[in-house]
């Protein structure tokens, strides 16, 4: 059996891992753990470009996101292999639109099943746009893990938002992107 597990950089990835570890898998199961980082938009909705200084900052943030995503993937794979020692697990980091990339990666991997979280960064929604797209477009079975916001996840999300706001505040408004 081939299973693609799509995770993001939210604290909810641990809940997806817990769900996978608590499921029964055949001995020949091969997992591909995937995360997709959306590329940074260099223009605002009016088509105005960022200043060179802000492009530099944005590129630095994007590179950090890629690095963090790679580390999250490796940690997830190690925990998966430790929890299901008779499986094989590989990782893949892609850039693009998450829904499209997950579907394409599942087709390329010839996945029998895709496991994806239910809402990602918007826990108050019934079902996020990525799992909706995956469920609608995938050519294999899709398991949507209903995620629960824990105090730890809420605290981490709040802390990340605060750090991003603090970093942005030190640099001033974005040229060409303010109201």
UniProtKB/TrEMBL annotation:
Residues 153-179 are annotated as: Disordered. It holds the Pfam family Usp. Residues 2-146 form the UspA domain. Residues 153-166 have a biased composition (Low complexity). InterPro entries: Rossmann-like_a/b/a_fold, UspA. Belongs to the universal stress protein A family. PANTHER family: STRESS RESPONSE PROTEIN NHAX, UNIVERSAL STRESS PROTEIN UP12. This is Universal stress protein. The lineage of its organism: Bacteria, Bacillati, Candidatus Melainabacteria, Candidatus Obscuribacterales, Candidatus Obscuribacteraceae.
């Amino acid at each position: 059996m081939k299973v693609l597990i799509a995770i993001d950089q939210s604290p909810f990835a641990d809940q997806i891992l817990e769900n996978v570890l608590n499921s029964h898998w055949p001995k020949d199961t091969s997992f591909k753990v995937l995360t997709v980082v959306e590329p940074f938009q260099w223009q605002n909705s009016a088509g105005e470009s960022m200043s060179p200084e802000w492009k530099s900052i944005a590129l630095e943030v994007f590179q950090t996101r890629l690095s963090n995503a790679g580390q999250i993937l490796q940690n997830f794979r190690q925990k998966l292999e430790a929890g299901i020692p008779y499986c094989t697990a590989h990782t893949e980091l892609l850039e693009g639109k998450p829904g499209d990339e997950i579907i394409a990666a599942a087709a390329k991997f010839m996945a029998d099943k895709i496991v994806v979280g239910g809402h990602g960064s918007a826990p108050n929604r019934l079902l996020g746009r990525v799992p909706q797209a995956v469920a609608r477009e995938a050519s294999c079975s899709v398991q949507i893990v209903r995620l629960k916001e824990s105090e730890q996840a809420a605290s981490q999300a709040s802390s990340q938002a605060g750090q991003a706001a603090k970093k942005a505040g030190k640099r001033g408004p974005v040229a060409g992107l303010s109201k």
